[in-house]
């Protein structure tokens, strides 16, 4: 986080995006409410900012690059009791959004990372 993406020439090399921030929001019948923002190796929630552990920083810095490519929704239906989590990923030149209904089936390539972010949500709301 906080680093420029690695610019590499176009001859068979990969462009790696760096996350500048991740914002988790709860979407419910009452609307959308921001729960936490991860930025600059800290997590801010309800006005309180704490440092992330080194293991958390490593997980975030090694996020699956698929997250930077497009928006996704998993298990988000239209039922009246729907409670979904929205994760907004901000990069240097763009952003992507994932909307997830807890307990829905998430592709394996991003599942572990999304479970990590969902656990952060649960840790915060259960404080």
How would you describe this protein?
With 127 residues, this protein is α+β, with helices and mostly antiparallel strands. The chain is built from two helices and seven strands, in the order E-E-E-E-H-E-E-E-H. It has a seven-stranded mixed β-sheet, with helices on one face. Strand 6 and strand 7 form a beta hairpin. It is globular and about 35 Å long. The two termini are 26 Å apart. The model is unreliable at 1-12 (pLDDT under 50).
Cα distance spanning the termini: 26 Å
Mean pLDDT over all positions? 85
**Strand order, biggest sheet?**
4-3-2-1-6-7-5
Query: Which descriptor suits the 3D outline?
Result: globular
Helix count, per DSSP? 2
By DSSP, the count of extended strands is 7
Topology of helices and strands:
Layout: E1 19-28, E2 31-39, E3 42-45, E4 48-51, H1 54-61, E5 72-74, E6 84-91, E7 95-100, H2 108-125
Parallel strand pairs: 5-7
Antiparallel strand pairs: 1-2, 1-6, 2-3, 3-4, 6-7
Features:
alpha+beta; 7-stranded mixed beta sheet
Short description:
The protein has about 130 residues and is α+β, with helices and mostly antiparallel strands. It has helices spanning about 55-60, 110-125; strands spanning about 20-30, 30-40, 40-45, 50, 70-75, 85-90, 95-100.
């Amino acid at each position: 986080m906080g680093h420029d993406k690695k610019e590499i020439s176009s001859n068979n090399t990969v462009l790696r995006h760096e996350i500048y921030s991740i914002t988790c929001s709860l979407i419910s019948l009452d609307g959308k409410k921001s729960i936490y923002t991860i930025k600059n190796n800290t997590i801010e929630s309800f006005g309180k900012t704490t440092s992330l552990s080194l293991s958390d920083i490593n997980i975030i810095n090694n996020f699956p690059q698929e997250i930077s490519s497009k928006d996704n929704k998993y298990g988000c239906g239209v039922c009246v009791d729907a409670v979904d989590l929205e994760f907004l990923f901000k990069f240097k030149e763009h952003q992507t959004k994932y909307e997830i209904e807890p307990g829905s089936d998430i592709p394996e390539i991003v599942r572990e990372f999304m479970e990590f972010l969902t656990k952060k949500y649960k840790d915060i709301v259960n404080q």
